[in-house]
Design brief:
Structural class: mainly alpha
Shape: globular
Bound molecules: flavin-adenine dinucleotide, iron/sulfur cluster
Strand content: under 5%
Largest sheet: 2 strands, parallel
Radius of gyration: 23 Å
Helix content: 40-55%
Number of helices: 20
Order of helices and strands: HHEHEHHHHHHHHHHHHHHHHH
CATH superfamily of the domain at 289-469: DNA Cyclobutane Dipyrimidine Photolyase, subunit A, domain 3
CATH architecture of the domain at 289-469: Orthogonal Bundle
């Protein structure tokens, strides 16, 4: 549990990792393997202790997915020839391939990377160089709103896996730990390979066909919608990315799912997922410190205790994360990160919260998503613009505003939605500081010119009042980034 104490990790995340590990151990034992399960102060210490007690053994390790752990095990392997590190099998793109691709580029655009993977892996291709359906990207067809989603109706919820005796044992162990977020109650994630395969099958059958069109929509109290909820299984090695995209492609070829959904799903996996892993290894360790805007605010308390805010979108999204350790991509980006950027939260503090709070969070994936894509902390290496918006976007893509005490159309006054004055004053700061935020912000910055000076000044006053009232995060929780 040493690693589990590094952050106030969500209890469901601890159960996921610890239970899956124990199930794997038992499956191996049943298959006749001799398995030694050790708990050490750190991974490197565990190996060191083993070799001290078994001097004639050697230890083969898969490349760790976390930079700090890779460093300490790398040091150990350099000192001790009995330790051998083998390439990571959980990704489709090796770190060496990414480095070659990245060399000589100043901007790492995902679209170029994605097309190269489609060709290299032969996924959704008509010929070795022509994409299926004649186009690489069907995103333009995939932006349906919350209203359209309500009309379409909801799919069956993802397959749930109620805890067995072993998982219940782990839940009791995790419940006994005081300094963690969320609850173990309602834990239903897959913890075995068989369960993960059943979850994949369930997604392909019931949600993949509508995945594309409704990818960006959000509904209060409905976290999964047409998403897969498979990152949790994939990130702990219960599913391999290749089998997932092959299953999706087979569904398209069999006429079960349209290309716009299958291409959207394939893009997430062989595009975004592999790309952020590549960025992580290419940019570490300096990526932990990036902060393009120079934000210093501590994480507001509402991220841990959503009931302290009356902003319905934030309250609902954070309450959902606290309950399930999950939210889909758009609430993570356009509500949680959007608010943090508009209020000037330090990217590192936000990244810690994401790492602790989500069941699928590991540093290799949450860090680039938070500091690169979510907060523009790397100054545009990864994202072509800061992903910020006013209430307009949230109102169009979700149903949160209907149940909110604020008015998404008002920019000033007692009922004005904070996202509005925070957004326009943030753009004003960018203009004043003459920051380079990419071509795609040219239009919003032109729209800023149309706002009367007096109204903009009033928005600045409201922002100051709002920020002064934002409570800082609760204290007393431990945040350690050592090797663990
Ligand atoms: C601020 C922020 C933080 C994030 N933190 C994490 C994280 O800690 N762990 C994590 O796995 N994903 C993270 N993501 C990416 C994405 O939001 C999740 O992978 C996705 O929401 C998981 O839910 P799902 O399995 O239902 O995904 P689906 O919508 O069903 O997508 C299918 C799969 O595509 C992959 N994927 C999609 N987008 C990304 C992406 N940007 N980066 C990496 N993989 C992607 C995931 O493996 C996912 O399971 C983050 C995104 C943002 C904006
Ligand atoms: S009105 Fe503003 S705060 Fe309320 S739900 Fe809509 S975007 Fe969020």
């Amino acid at each position: 549990m040493a690693k589990g104490a590094a952050l106030p990790f969500h209890r469901k995340k601890l159960v996921l990792v610890l239970s899956a590990l124990r199930h794997f151990r038992d499956e191996l034992r049943e298959a006749g393997y001799e398995v030694h399960h050790r708990v050490g102060a750190s991974y490197a210490d565990g190996i060191r202790d083993w070799l001290r007690d078994h001097p004639d053994d050697r230890v083969v390790v898969q490349q760790p997915t976390e930079w700090g752990i890779a460093q300490s095990i790398g040091t150990l392997a350099a000192e001790d020839p009995r330790v051998e590190i083998r390439p990571d099998q959980r990704f489709l793109v090796s770190r060496e391939w990414f480095t070659k691709w990245a060399n000589g580029r100043t901007l790492f655009r995902m679209e170029d990377f994605y097309r190269a993977q489609r060709k290299r892996l032969g996924i959704l291709m008509e010929t070795p160089t022509t994409p299926a359906g004649g186009t690489w990207n069907l995103d333009a067809e995939n932006r349906k709103t919350a209203t359209a989603l309500r009309k379409r109706g909801l799919p069956s919820p993802p397959l749930a896996f109620p805890p067995d005796a072993l998982t219940r044992e782990v839940m009791a162990m995790v419940d006994a730990r005081p300094d963690h977020w969320g609850s173990t109650e309602g834990f239903d994630y897959p913890v075995t390979r068989m369960q993960a395969l059943a979850a994949l099958d369930d997604f392909i059958k019931h949600r993949l066909p509508d995945f594309g069109p409704f990818e960006d929509a959000m509904l209060a109290g409905e976290p999964v919608l047409y998403h897969s909820r498979l990152s949790v299984a994939m990130n702990i090695g219960l599913l391999h990315p290749l089998e997932m995209v092959q299953a999706a492609e087979a569904a398209w070829r069999a006429g079960h799912a349209p290309l716009q959904s299958v291409e959207g799903f394939v893009r997430q996996i062989i595009g975004w997922r592999e790309y952020v892993n590549g960025i992580y290894w290419h940019q570490m360790p300096s990526y932990r410190k990036v902060n393009y805007f120079g934000f210093t605010r501590a994480l507001p308390r509402l991220y841990w205790e959503p009931e302290v805010t009356d902003m319905a979108c934030l309250r609902d999204t954070i309450a959902t994360v606290r309950e399930h350790a999950y939210a889909h991509h758009i609430p993570r980006l356009m509500i949680l990160c959007n608010f943090a950027v508009l209020t000037g939260v330090s990217p590192g503090a936000l990244s810690d919260w994401f790492w602790a709070g989500f069941a699928d969070a590991m540093e290799w994936v949450e860090l680039p998503n938070v500091v690169g894509m979510g907060t523009f902390g790397d100054g545009g290496l990864m994202a072509s613009k800061p992903y910020v918006s006013s209430a307009n976007y949230i109102n169009r893509m979700s149903d949160h505003c209907g149940g909110c005490r604020y008015n998404p159309k008002e920019r000033t006054g007692a009922d004005a939605c904070p996202f509005n004055y925070l957004y326009w004053t943030f753009l004003d700061d960018i203009r004043t500081r003459e920051l380079d935020v990419g071509e795609r912000m040219a239009m919003p910055l032109r729209n800023l010119e149309r706002i009367p000076e007096a109204e903009l000044a009033a928005m600045h006053v409201e922002r100051e009042q709002f920020l002064a009232a934002l409570e800082p995060e609760r204290t007393g929780w431990v945040f350690r980034h050592d090797e663990g």
